[in-house]
Write a structure and sequence with these properties.
Structural class: mainly alpha
Distance between the termini: 16 Å
Radius of gyration: 25 Å
Strand content: under 5%
Number of strands: 5
Length: 643
């Protein structure tokens, strides 16, 4: 080998080392206690969403165990009616608003930039602000417990029960303002993901090459943009009825209690798919990787996800079949409720075809996919039943509905989530989990889930109403309630084992390497755990599974981005061709102080609406610091193959 060639190779190695050193310096994490509040990196914020959501999941699970203990035997006096209503309300609110949506958004915030080949989300400071609003909303709800202001009108807060006449005090106000906190956070994350996916994809990642999980998060984000304002408006109107004497839901003054149900369920049913659609994206990724072949029917799956997002906004009234609406209108919503099963069925057939044509490997994440198939199909079948207005009227206020929505939400979202966390755990930590303990945990959770919720179908068909704190020994419901309560304990055991596996593996698990599953998407191209800048050079994509098409060291790369500052490549929407570079803002504490000001305004408004004004004044100075201008240089970088 000639001296000239050696010097060229040495110079390339020096340049690569220098680039890596510059990136580590420019993307470094702020240190110390104050540094925690300055963090704007998408992986750190995404993990905060996930961890915080799981803490709320544990709290919601404890509340569920308390309710199941109360219902385990007839005429039980462990909880009084008021306390049961509080626990029931906080459990539902926690699971829907503080766990299910935030944890899916946290997975998206963490994974989407890695999967599309960029270095951070589009608006990193806004991303940090969204997390603080979510955190403050959860703290606000649970602070009500210690202030004797825990909400007790159900997680749906139907009027007039939740109005000032039947719910005096501040209990419902705490619930309504929690909605404002968490849904504002959800809107922030939705904006982040939409702009990131549309404008920050790696060159060559055209719309027909986006990973299906990214498509799922994109559709979910658009649904959030259209759904969350409805429930924020509803909670705002409820608060104004209660605090300043408006009459949106007061029929004596021209209001309408059904307005609340229409507004709430216009959000509430899309909410089901906001939770479920990311789960389907996770299932598609797991099926692809562990079937060892590209997904069958990529276009059909993407169109099915988009169709589900559209149709999900057209069937909210099936939650209101028992309210006496015109039968002709109910028939249209029955048809829409049946129609939405078609795109989900298309996805199931595509997943099954992928497995049939591949070589499935029964890993722990794949067992969670199989559990998802079993549970969600059962939940979907009961969903078809209650989509019919005559049947729904019979079972509407019974435990049959409780069984159905737990089968759909836990089967459709939680089991895919648990499998996805197991799958992406090496990317987050660089460690592998214990497969034996993981498989045992999956089976325990599957058995415990069916022990808990399948008997509720029987209870509902035999007339046990929802939202009752006890029942008579003469009702014949004792045996099935006891079985459901035993199942709840089994689920708790499975949840504990899942957490044990995570904590033990994070400390002592085997090192995973960059791509332990031999997957094909871009997040596995970089190190595990990924560095703060994600990619030393932005990859150029030529297919849907880039790492299956060629080795990672042969993938063409983008060169020309500055390494001494936080630059990202902005690409065009359709074909993802390079457009310009953009300098992302760095760490700052200003989003935290804006969130504090917003939180003061929201919290104080529970007692006096003038606190909104004070919160706005508090936010002014942090906003100035947040948006202080910085230089932005645009150019089109070169695209070359690595030397």
């Amino acid at each position: 080998m000639s001296a000239d060639l050696l010097s060229t190779i040495d110079q390339c190695e020096i340049d690569e080392a220098a680039a890596k050193r510059d990136l580590e310096n420019s993307w470094r994490a702020p240190g110390g206690f104050i540094g925690w509040f300055q963090e704007v990196n998408h992986k750190a914020i995404g993990l905060r969403y996930i961890v915080t959501a799981f803490i709320f999941l544990i709290a919601g699970g404890i509340e569920a165990l308390l309710m199941r203990y109360q219902l385990a035997i007839p005429d039980h006096r462990f909880l009084n009616p008021n306390l049961y209503n509080e626990i029931f309300t906080i459990h539902g609110s926690t699971m829907m608003f503080l766990f299910a949506v935030p944890v899916m958004e946290g997975m998206g915030i963490y994974l989407v930039p890695l999967m599309i080949g960029t270095r951070n989300v589009a608006f990193p400071r806004l991303n940090a602000y969204g997390y603080y609003m979510f955190l403050f909303g959860g703290i606000f709800l649970y602070a009500g417990i210690f202030l004797n202001m825990a909400p007790d009108a159900g997680w749906f807060a139907y009027t007039p029960l939740s109005g000032p006449q039947f719910s005096p005090g501040k209990r419902v106000d705490f619930w309504a303002q929690m909605i404002t906190f968490t849904e504002l956070s959800a809107l922030v994350v939705a904006i982040e993901i939409i702009v990131t996916v549309i404008k920050l994809r790696a060159p060559g990642m055209s719309l027909d090459r986006i990973p299906i999980f990214v498509w799922a998060m994109l559709v979910q984000s658009f649904m959030v943009v259209f759904a969350m304002p409805a429930v924020m408006d509803a909670s705002g109107m409820l608060m104004m009825d209660r605090t300043i004497g408006t009459h949106f839901f007061n029929p004596a003054e021209g209001g309408d209690p059904l307005l609340w149900q229409h507004t709430f369920w216009f959000f509430g049913h899309p909410e089901v798919y906001i939770i479920f659609i990311p789960g389907t994206g996770m299932v598609a990724e797991l099926v692809t990787v562990f079937s060892r072949r590209p997904i069958f029917g990529y276009t059909a799956i993407v169109l099915s996800i988009i169709s589900t997002g559209f149709i999900g906004f057209g069937l909210w009234v099936h939650h209101m079949f028992a309210t006496g609406l015109p039968q002709l209108g109910e028939s249209f919503f029955t048809a829409a409720s049946l129609l939405i099963t078609i795109p989900t069925g298309v996805q199931f057939f595509c997943w099954l075809a992928t497995m049939w044509g591949g070589r499935p490997k029964l890993t722990v994440p794949f067992w969670y996919v199989i559990s998802f198939f079993i549970i969600f199909v059962a939940g979907g079948l009961s969903g078809v039943m209650i989509a019919s207005a005559p049947f729904d009227i019979q079972v509407h206020d019974t435990f049959f509905i409780v069984a159905h929505f737990h089968y759909v939400l836990i089967g459709g979202a939680v089991f895919p989530l648990l499998g996805a966390i197991y799958y992406w755990f090496p990317k987050m930590t660089g460690r592998l989990q214990d497969d034996r303990l993981g498989l045992i945990t999956c089976w325990i959770l599957l058995i415990g889930f069916n022990l808990t919720f399948f008997p509720m179908h029987w209870l509902g068909l035999h007339g046990m109403p929802r939202r009752v704190y006890t029942y008579s020994a003469n009702s014949s419901w004792a045996s099935m309630n006891a079985l459901a309560s035993i199942g709840a304990v089994v689920i708790a055991v499975g949840g504990i084992l899942y957490l044990v596996n995570i904590f033990r593996s994070k400390r002592d698990g085997g090192f995973s390497g960059p791509n332990p599953w031999q997957a094909g998407t871009l997040e596995w191209m970089t190190d595990s755990p990924a560095p703060r800048y994600n990619f030393l050079h932005i990859p150029i994509v030529s297919g849907r599974e880039p790492l299956w098409e060629r080795p990672s060291d042969e993938i063409p790369l983008v060169i020309g981005l500055r390494t001494d500052r936080r630059e990202v490549l902005v690409t065009r929407t359709l074909e993802a061709s390079p457009d310009h570079r953009y300098i992302l803002p760095g760490p700052t504490i200003w989003p935290f102080w804006v969130a504090v000001g917003t939180g003061i305004g929201f919290t104080g408004s529970v007692f006096n609406m003038w606190w909104f004004v004070l919160g706005g004044f508090i936010c002014f100075v942090p906003f100035v610091g947040w948006f202080w201008p910085h230089r932005n240089i645009n150019f089109v970088p070169k695209m070359e193959k690595p030397k």
